[in-house]
Automatic annotation (TrEMBL):
<keyword id="KW-0812">Transmembrane</keyword>
<feature type="transmembrane region" description="Helical">
    <location>
        <begin position="240"/>
        <end position="264"/>
    </location>
</feature>
<dbReference type="InterPro" id="IPR051598">
    <property type="entry name" value="TSUP/Inactive_protease-like"/>
</dbReference>
<keyword id="KW-0472">Membrane</keyword>
<dbReference type="InterPro" id="IPR002781">
    <property type="entry name" value="TM_pro_TauE-like"/>
</dbReference>
<keyword id="KW-1003">Cell membrane</keyword>
<dbReference type="GO" id="GO:0005886">
    <property type="term" value="C:plasma membrane"/>
</dbReference>
<keyword id="KW-1133">Transmembrane helix</keyword>
<dbReference type="Pfam" id="PF01925">
    <property type="entry name" value="TauE"/>
</dbReference>
<comment type="similarity">
    <text>Belongs to the 4-toluene sulfonate uptake permease (TSUP) (TC 2.A.102) family.</text>
</comment>
<feature type="transmembrane region" description="Helical">
    <location>
        <begin position="113"/>
        <end position="130"/>
    </location>
</feature>
<feature type="transmembrane region" description="Helical">
    <location>
        <begin position="205"/>
        <end position="228"/>
    </location>
</feature>
<feature type="transmembrane region" description="Helical">
    <location>
        <begin position="82"/>
        <end position="101"/>
    </location>
</feature>
<feature type="transmembrane region" description="Helical">
    <location>
        <begin position="171"/>
        <end position="199"/>
    </location>
</feature>
<feature type="transmembrane region" description="Helical">
    <location>
        <begin position="12"/>
        <end position="38"/>
    </location>
</feature>
<protein>
    <recommendedName>
        <fullName>Probable membrane transporter protein</fullName>
    </recommendedName>
</protein>
<feature type="transmembrane region" description="Helical">
    <location>
        <begin position="270"/>
        <end position="289"/>
    </location>
</feature>
Length: 304
């Protein structure tokens, strides 16, 4: 079933795009991540231009985040005060990211930068996840528990001025810390088309020191609004959002998330984390190979 993508300016098999969305939806349901950090690389592997893939994936993440926010709201798992500060930072970050996106596009380096960012982020986070998962599996087998980490914000966060009380998160810190974190996530969302959850959740736990029972819900709350702003920013400035592509992805991811949730209930969380780490490292390795691989046909522009 061939479908023409007007912004990407190419024809694709619509069933394959739906299947890519379903695959990321399954991963989202199994591992509790937005899936945007895998959707964009998979589309790039399929032949979608990186700029269109990043811009369209952001709109898919918006749709996938809505149900998650409602679910966490019902159980009181969202710190709206913290989320509002991070949303404000995220919207500022999308503006900065838009300027950076346009600059890199004018320089002809945007595709390369997107690929490098994915290799660095996926490689580092996948490595950390794999290390933590292997340590947990060893602890289960030996019966020696891993020492619990004390919940405490980073010393740099403690040094920032103008402290506020974030009652739901159990914190008394400066709002500048979540604001800066939101700005960083907004820039990454604009450049990479990710929701940012796989970066935001560890940062909220280990840098801000937030309570674990509100981290995921607050992260989804921030992701929802920031990806909305990112989609609008892309539509107005870069014109790279392909609504046909985004719709096909969303169709697959919504159904795939339900299947993934069923798998997640039956599998060990530690083993699931290790599987996700391996997937992330494989994607990072494939993207790194693409950056250094010599193509079969090399085009040159000769001076007249």
């Amino acid at each position: 079933m061939d479908v023409y993508l007007p912004i990407a300016n190419l024809s694709v098999n619509g069933l394959i795009i739906v299947a890519l969305g379903a695959l990321t939806g399954v991963l989202s349901g199994m591992f509790g991540v937005g899936g945007g950090f895998l959707t964009t690389p998979l589309m790039i592997f399929y032949g979608i231009p990186p700029t269109v893939a990043a811009a369209s994936a952001a709109s898919q993440v918006t749709g996938a985040s809505v149900s998650g926010v409602f679910a966490h709201t019902r159980r009181g798992g969202v710190d709206y005060q913290m989320g509002a500060v991070m949303v404000a930072g995220g919207i500022m970050g999308t503006g900065l990211g838009s300027l950076l996106f346009n600059l890199l596009e004018q320089l002809g380096q945007i595709d390369t930068v997107i690929n490098i960012l994915y290799v660095v982020l996926l490689g580092s986070i996948g490595g950390l996840m794999a290390k933590e998962s292997i340590q947990s599996i060893r602890a289960e087998r030996t019966g020696i528990p891993i020492a619990a980490r004390k919940r405490r914000h980073h010393p740099m966060v403690a040094s920032l001025p103008m402290r506020w009380r974030f009652y739901r998160s159990g914190l008394y810190i400066s709002p500048l810390a979540p604001l800066l974190l939101g700005i960083g996530t907004g820039i990454l969302t604009m450049l990479m088309g990710i929701g940012g959850g796989f970066v935001l959740v560890p940062a909220m736990l280990y840098i801000l020191g937030m309570s674990a029972n509100v981290v995921v819900g607050t992260s989804l709350f921030q992701i929802l609004f920031v990806t909305m702003a990112t989609t609008m920013m892309h539509a107005l400035t870069t014109h790279a959002v392909d609504i046909v592509l985004a719709s096909l992805l969303l169709l697959g991811s919504v159904s795939g998330a339900q299947v993934g949730a069923q798998f997640a209930q039956k599998a060990s969380p530690v083993k699931l984390r290790l599987i996700l780490a391996v997937i992330v490292l494989l994607v990072a390795g494939r993207m790194a190979l693409g950056l250094g691989y010599r193509p079969d046909e090399i085009y040159t522009v000769a001076p007249l």
